[in-house]
Amino acid sequence: MEDLDTFVLRTALHWQALGLPVVLVTVARTWGSSPRPPGSLMAINALGETAGSVSGGCIEDELIQRIREQGIHTVCNSHLPAVMRYGISADEAHRFGLPCGGTVELVLEPVSAHSRLDELLACCEQRRSTERVLNLASGDVTLRPGQRDGMPHLDQQQLTTYLGPQVRLIVIGASDLSRFLCQIALSLGFEVIVCEPREEYRASWQLPGTSLSSDMPDDLILRLQPDARTAVIALTHDPKLDDLALIDALQSQAFYVGAIGSRRNSQHRRERLRTHFDIPDQTLQGLHGPAGLYIGSKTPAEIALSIMAEIVAVKNGITVAAATAVETGKQQHETVHDLSSGASGCMV
């Protein structure tokens, strides 16, 4: 499954190929509370069909109505980009479903060959972070290498936005837990690759939207060279499969590297990596294990939710201290339980 930005670009290109006038709408700036962050994309064609969103729905409804009644180029005032602002007053905020005081500024861009959406889509598919500069006076677009998560910038001359690689999850091991984890990841717009060299596990894997690799995990990690938009999670419980992959992943740019296991097994894993593979403590600090946030999970589906929650938190820059890691959460839970029951034994 592709992420929302890629879906919007691909849909806009499809409509353009069918000969339909299309406008690409970008959230350029927001003030106060807003349903969608700057950089969010939506495409609308002349029939009023949409892909993506820029609000909770009310702004989209108003834009669709205006485009149907006036046409895309009239709404944009010409064949050139136009800037529109919604939610300036409290009345408008209520009318368009924005939180009170919230304001969103949009750039409406009639899609043409000058938009270079085909090149931008190719950059995203090739995992190349790209800076896109739209000239508001001419509609011309410049593409150049840039950071994936840069903040959009709008001034009187141009709109600068940043797009790039779809966030990716590499799962080591095909199991029931893997299946639930992959389903959640796909629903969140992750590209999902499952690595399973064991034929008996690989034979029963069936989940549309995922890629299945029979490579040894460390070989796959070395081949893919995880970038800063990639997370790696080891789920096999087999050190022969997990450890070498984790070593290579920890030395890559991956934003998240994790492995399941009890607190005792996780400690043993760190000792193995430190003693037998000379992995320094500083590098080992990047290993999330036991993986996940503490939610009292028991079933494979709940454990998958716990792990995916931690991956998303790290992707969004939320520190584990702001949430609760599995190890810390279990310790706190056991402490509370022991105090309430009067237990005095040692915790595992």
TrEMBL record:
Q: Name one Pfam family in it.
A: XdhC_CoxI
Stretches assigned to the XdhC Rossmann domain:
169-311
Instruction: Please list the residue ranges annotated as the XdhC- CoxI domain.
Output: 15-69
Species the sequence originates in: Undibacterium oligocarboniphilum
Q: State the name under which the record lists this protein.
A: XdhC family protein
The record's listing under InterPro entries reads: MoCofactor_Util/Proc, XdhC_CoxI, XdhC_Rossmann_dom
